[in-house]
Each structure stands twice: as C-alpha cells, then as structure tokens.
Amino acid sequence: MTVSRTICLGFLAVMAIGTLVLALPLAINDGTWAWEHLLIALFTSTSAVCVTGHVVVDTGTYFSPIGQFFILVLVQVGGLGYMTATTFLLLLIGRRFGLREKIAVQQALDRSEMQGAAQVIRSIIATTLLFEITGIFLLLFLFTPTHGLQQALWLATFHSISAWNNAGFSLFPNNLVNYQASPLLNLTIPGLIVFGGIGYEAIFELFLWCRDRLLRRSRCLVFSLNFKVAVSTTLTLLVLGTIAFFLVEGRNANTLSSMPLVTQLMAAWFQSVTARTAGFNTIDLSKMTEAGLFITIALMFIGGSPGGTAGGIKTTTLRVLTSCTRGILQGKEEASLYERQIPLSLILKAVGVAVGSLITVLVMTTLIALSDPQFDFIQLLFEVVSAFATVGLSTGITAGLSTFGKLVLIATMYIGRVGVLLLMSALLGDPTPTAIRYPEENLLVG
C-alpha cells in the first residue's frame, strides 16, 4: 500500500460514503427512494469530492437541507484533499505525525520537502477558514435583502465554501445568472476562486511578504519561482480571458450584447475566472458561440495552480512547456524561467502531465461520442474537459447523457482530481531506481 494508492483509494472511499449518504431518503427533498437515486447520488458525490460541480439534478430543489449539508461536507473534504483532511483529524486526536504522513502530505500538496508538514496542515486549515468566513460575511450583504437572514446565512455559507474549493455547486436553479450585475458578487466569488486556486504556498509567501512590509522589517523576502510563475500566469490568463470573452461574446445577443457595458465587462471577467476550474456561471453557456466555448475549453484545460483547490494541467505545467518551446526557438539546450534553470525531471513531469491529460480527454470524449451521438462534438468535448479539469461548467447536456456517458464522466472527474501521474503510480507501483544509462542517438522530430 504505497502513498499514491492510499490517496487514490482514500478518494474512492469518501466517494462511496458520500454516495450512500446522498442516496438516503432523508437527503432527498421528497423523502422517497428509487434505484435511479443511486446513480444520481454517485454522480453528485463524485462531483462534490472531486470539487467539480457537475450536476444531473438541481441541487437546491432535489436535495433536502440535510443532503445539501452532506454535499458541502464532501466539497470541503475534497477541496482540502484526502490526505490533508485525514492528517488534520490525526492532529486533532493527538496522534503522532509520522514519516508516512509527512511523505503523504508532501506528495498530496506537491511540496519539495517534508519538514514542517504538521505546521503546513494547520496553516492550510486556518487559511481555508479565514477566506471562507470572510466570503460568508460579504455574501450575507448580498443575499439578506431578498432571502432573509436565516436563509441568507445558509446561502452565503454554501456558496462561499463552494467558491473557495473551486467546486461550482449552487443552490439556485440558474446558478448565479440573477446576480450578473452585482459588483459585490463579481468581486467576492471570483476573489475566493482565484485565491483558492492559486495554491497555499503562494498565499503563505504573500502573507509573509505583507507581514514584513507592515512591520517594516529589514529582511527582504525573495519570492520563490513557484510564486512568480503561479501569480504571473494567473494574472495573464485572467486578463486575456476577460478580453477574449468580451470581444467574442460582445456581439452575441444571447449572452453579452444585450447587457449594459459595465455588466458586460463584469460578466466577461466572471467567466474568465470561473473557467479556471470553478464552475459558476452568470451567463447561459448553452447560448455561447463556438468560439466562446473553445476559449472556455482552453482555460479549463489549463486550470489553476498546484497546491490549491483547482484542477487542470496547472499554470506551472503550461509555463514549463512554453519555456521549453521558447528555448528551442532561441537555440538553447535548456529551459529557464526568471533566471532560473528548470531541472530535466521537472520538464519530463510537465510533458507527462500534458500528454496524459490529452490522452484522457481524447479517450473519454470518444467513449461519450459513441454512447451519445445525438449531441454536438463541441458540447461533448466541453463536458469532458470540464469534468477532467474539475470545473463543472456545462452547456446543459449533463442530465441528458446516457447512463454509460454519466459513468464515463464520473471516471473522468476522479482521474482529474487525483491526477494522471498519481493514478498511474498507484496502478503500476512506485518506479524502481536503476543505474543503467543508454547511449544517445538522434532522431527526426517535428
């Protein structure tokens, strides 16, 4: 039982428990039970644990308040990660933090060292609570005037936790379309999404930098390469995504063109943020142009940053691959970022993640295209990439998929959450070190 197998089986165990709980009559609004509820419960549990947000029923009307609470618990566990959540429980009961737990946390959070793993877990929990409580407080001002304080408190709690964990679950039938013109929502929800998806390591570094500046300490904090790459790539994608959606959908009467200019900009901004693995929407995605859908697919496939609650191939993978391309064009034999050379092992890992992700998307799209040929290819590709990148955005075809198609999406969400390389490591076992080195020989490429 390797660490990778522990993580993969742990997610499966949480998904199974969530399925059993959500299939109970007390979790369903009408209090009845039927065999079709089991598939709905499995799909919803997988979507919640994998912080995807894909739904086959309306969460706010199909599930009872108890069922909605169970979904929120699954989202929180899935967002923290199986090893982070279980390790935190071990710390709460006072169990000693052993070497195995340190290695598990290192692999689960993609950290470079094992030192201070217990403190990292405590910091992650504290950061999560701080941002989620702040989000609840801000959203209360938005929901209270129309829903009353008690209902608004639950709505604010549900959407704040869902946004921070990049889950995209909403209790409104049309998601957040009714609030597309609200500046408060267009700042609060995207803020939670961005900070939740940028990675805990980046947040910790930003906190230390702000603390040093406020205390006027002479020690100068040098940002790590991970921070520079994650933050710069995130900002670039947010700006480019906003501009792209504004230009592409600005003449589409079904999405942006019928709105005032300020609302158009807010909707384009929100769509650029949420496409990076969050899953909320303030416009009807089924009425977007094919160009808009393709831009969304590209942003979903890239995803957020490592160490956070986002999915996709990650911003760092994108930057490593583009750095390799730039190095080849400049005639260099190495890749570098911000005056730092990228190790060969990291380049190989980035290539493995990208190739594995592409193969997964191609295989899953082909399978659903065979089982559900009545839908357009762009819709099926959108659905699969959204599931793999744990986004949850949909053009509205999820509920209409066949049972086989839904099972394929369930597998896709699971693979996207645990990661292609981690899943392969769990299936094949840890690699065996070898001292053998083969002679080099050139071949034609490109």
Please provide a written account of the structure.
- This protein is an all-alpha fold and 446 residues long.
- It has one domain.
- 64% of the residues lie in helices and 1% in strands.
- It is built from 17 helices and two strands.
- The chain has a two-stranded antiparallel ribbon.
- Strand 1 and strand 2 form a beta hairpin.
- Helix 5 packs antiparallel against helix 6.
- The longest helix has 48 residues.
- The chain is globular, with a radius of gyration of 22 Å.
- The two termini are 41 Å apart.
Shape: globular
Whole-number average pLDDT? 87
Distance between the termini: 41 Å
Radius of gyration: 22 Å
Total helix count? 17
Element string (H = helix, E = strand): HHHHHHHHHHHHHEEHHHH
Please list the strands of the largest sheet in the order they lie side by side.
1-2
**Helical percent range?**
55-70%
Uncertain stretches: none
The count of domains is 1
The secondary structure category is: mainly alpha
How many strands, what sense, and barrel or not for the largest sheet? 2 strands, antiparallel
Total number of strands:
2
Strand content: under 5%
